[in-house]
Design brief:
Elements (H helix, E strand, L loop, with lengths): L1 H16 L6 H17 L17 H13 L9 H56 L1
């Protein structure tokens, strides 16, 4: 039975691609069978909005429909998106800590560079003064 359902679904897909229409009852059966298949899968799906891409032509609506069908949908009963958000927040916090640590290291290095430059400048002045004294 499952193989027959797959074959029917494949035929309907090929009919849709070829422009052959189906009745409303067939479409509702397709929705019911596809929603049962979707609920059986465990992958979280993401729905993308194409609200800014309306072209006003008849083909634009069909391309939006096919784009929506091609993009995965979010399962509202799944907590995968919450877990993903939590992981991203934790990563953001850790990256923020790394950034502040790197900033501190850079400031420390800048201080060291400034101190070394000042010592170098003082040494140059001291050497110039010694040269002047030896010339006299």
């Amino acid at each position: 039975i499952a193989s027959l359902l797959k074959e029917v679904a494949n035929l309907k897909k090929s009919n849709k691609k070829n422009g052959i229409g189906s009745s409303k009852a067939d479409k509702e059966k397709d929705k019911d069978s596809s929603s049962a298949k979707d609920s059986a899968t465990s992958k979280p799906e993401i729905k993308q909005s194409n609200s800014g891409n309306s072209s006003g032509s008849g083909n634009g609506g069909m391309s939006n429909f096919t784009a929506m069908m091609a993009t995965p949908m979010v399962d509202p009963n799944s907590s995968d998106h919450v877990v993903a958000m939590t992981q991203l927040k934790e990563k953001l916090v850790s990256l923020g800590k790394k950034l502040t640590q790197k900033d501190k290291e850079l400031l420390d290095k800048d201080k060291l560079i400034t101190e070394l430059k000042s010592k170098n400048f003082e040494n140059e002045i001291e050497l110039r003064n010694k040269l002047k004294d030896t010339e006299r």
